[in-house]
Amino acid sequence: SQQGEEDPQALSIQEGENATMxxxxxxxxxxxxxxxxxxxxxxxxxxxxxxxxxxxxxxxLRVTLDTSxxxxxxxxxxxxxxxTASYFCATPTGGGNKLTFGTGTQLKVEL
Amino acid sequence: ETGxxxxxxxxxxxxxxxxxxxxxxxxxxxxxxxxxxxxxKPLELMFVYSLEERVENNxxxxxxxxxxxxxxxxxxxxxxxQPEDSALYLCASSxxxxxxxxxxxxPGTRLTxx
Lengths: 111, 114
Hints:
The structure holds 2 protein chains of 2 kinds. By secondary structure, chain A is an all-beta fold. Chain A has no helices and 11 strands. In chain A, strands 2, 4, 5, 9, 10 and 11 form a 6-stranded mixed β-sheet that branches. Helices cover 0% and strands 56% of the residues of chain B. Chain A binds chain B through residues 2, 4, 30-31, 33, 35, 40-45, 48, 50, 88, 92, 95-104, and chain B through 1, 4, 6, 31, 40-43, 45, 48, 55-56, 88, 90, 92, 94, 96-108, 110.
């Protein structure tokens, strides 16, 4: 598996439901970031959580980080059709700002 | 999304052509990046520039040649590409090349090599 691997690969839910995506990584990190990508577009930064934080909120987003399990989760509450996108976690590797992205979770929110 | 712009948005080229991708950031950032995104594969970092100096080259074939003339502009010069180079090429920038800095992405250039 790769550094920053998301699970599930695809998720389909109804509008109003919650969506949970998971990310696992291999090496020690000092932070983990989540990004969103609409089809064929650039990535948009959602949230950054540092290694000394366990949970962080931003609007309808809730991110958790468990450094002992080397995993993170992204929860989107009360999902909307506009949340349909791919979601990626990214972890720093090799020092500096070299971010390694996973293959992403494709979320589809249906009306 | 207008913080980082990329042109062209779509490009179709033959294997013998020479073309360039352009990226411009209006955010006053010091670091810029090129990524390649292929179907079913993770985003691949190609190059990192910090204050116009290349600080990362991820074993990218020489048919891809980056250029950073100033901190606001980044180019990717392409020549004698292969069909497997077809992908979405994304440019990004950040304040500094630090892992805690948010990266801001452009909309990408969809490249098709025939």
